[in-house]
Design goal:
With 360 residues, this protein is mostly helical. The mean pLDDT is 94. It has 14 helices and four strands. Helix 1 packs parallel to helix 3, helix 12 packs antiparallel against helix 13 and helix 13 packs across helix 14.
């Protein structure tokens, strides 16, 4: 009998079965990546995205899918997908190595300010792809975009406080130049120029790494888990599996201080597993849960059950169903997701499990 955190499942899943599912998912992404390297995202108003759906042109999906596919090295089709994604993201880069949530052709591009979430996720991916981006400049901008307790603001916008960073003032002046549009943005969307979000800080931590300026973030993330505040710690990421996933990436990256919350994350994920092996409400939740469990060192039977669920729910053309990944604010009036995004996270979970089986 396998222990809760001990050996991998007694009955493993055949590598042929895993490879077949992974290859079908890769083929789907290859066929649904746009010629410019972009991946589509949809906006809807329900988690299952079964009512109205509006296609959106965003930077974020290519970065998220790209980071997930980094777990499948030495695969020719994956390398082609990653290469196209990297070039797309590099083309979307703004001054100082910053990124907007929307692409340069989107109707909201000039309305929405730059943010550290997209900037950190894209920068991390492009660094892994060995693209030449102004790392020192955008990291210093991030460091200068913190509040007094050391946590990072989400938005790169004007605030009534001293800031010596010249690049910061470029974006602040740009906002003031379009003051009316800026006021519309802050009125229309559920956000504030003083937002501090947990997942955003976790993504910044992954990009910047452990250093003097990110120590408050580490303490902040530990406190969120210890006080069980993960359900309401971020404006945009309203799903606890998303929170666990992004925090766990820092654990896997070697931020040893976060080891103190590994058991808490593992326990809370496992108690949300369903009888059919899935986690939460969707295959997306299941994929995020499995990657988070592996990142935190869990190797028990319940991962295999979740993997079997993922394989079972794969569609004939290789994709997995879309589900809300992030939201337009705490009221959850709008959400964003796509088949491509879900497929990226499912492929990450499958590949990570395949690697885990090989080491056991």
């Amino acid at each position: 009998m396998c222990s809760e955190k001990g050996e991998i499942a007694c009955k493993s899943i055949s590598e042929k079965k895993l490879n077949n599912s992974i290859n079908r998912g890769i083929n789907y992404l290859e066929n649904h990546q746009l010629p410019n390297g972009e991946f589509l995202m949809y906006m809807s108003d329900d988690d299952a995205m079964q009512t109205w759906n509006l296609p959106e042109s965003c930077v974020f999906p290519a970065a998220l899918i790209g980071n997930s596919l980094l777990s499948i090295p030495n695969h020719q089709k994956v390398q082609e997908i990653l290469f196209k994604s990297a070039h797309f993201l590099y083309y979307q880069m703004d001054r100082g190595g910053t990124w907007n949530h929307y692409t340069i052709l989107h109707r909201f591009r000039k309305l929405c300010p730059q943010d550290l979430d997209d900037t950190s996720c894209v920068s991390y991916f492009l660094k892994q792809m060995n693209f030449d981006i102004p790392v020192k400049r955008n990291q210093q901008l991030a460091v200068n975009n913190r509040r007094s307790d050391g946590l990072f603001y989400t938005w790169i916008v004007f605030r009534w406080r001293f800031n010596k960073n010249v690049l910061y003032w470029y974006f602040a002046a740009k906002e003031l130049k379009h003051l009316f549009k800026s006021l519309i943005f802050w009125h229309k969307f559920e956000c504030s120029r003083y937002d501090v979000d947990a997942v955003v800080n976790a993504n910044i931590l992954l990009y910047l790494g452990k250093r003097k300026e990110t120590l408050p973030v580490i303490s902040y993330l530990i406190d969120i888990i210890k006080t069980e505040s993960e359900e309401d710690c971020d404006t945009w990421y309203r799903n606890i599996f998303t929170v666990y996933y992004f925090i766990s990436r820092n654990i896997y990256a070697g931020i040893i201080e976060l080891d103190s919350i590994k058991d808490d994350i593992i326990h809370r994920i496992l108690k949300r597993q369903n009888l059919d092996g899935s986690f939460g409400k969707s295959v997306l939740d299941t994929a995020l849960a499995i990657s988070a469990l592996i990142n935190t060192g869990y190797k028990g039977e319940k991962i295999k059950n979740g993997i079997e669920y993922i394989i079972k729910t794969q569609r004939r053309n290789g994709h997995w169903d879309r589900w809300a990944f992030y939201y337009g604010g705490p009221k959850k009036l709008s959400c964003f997701g796509s088949e491509e995004l879900t497929t990226g996270f499912c492929l990450e979970a499958l590949a990570r499990f395949r690697d885990l089986q090989k080491t056991e």
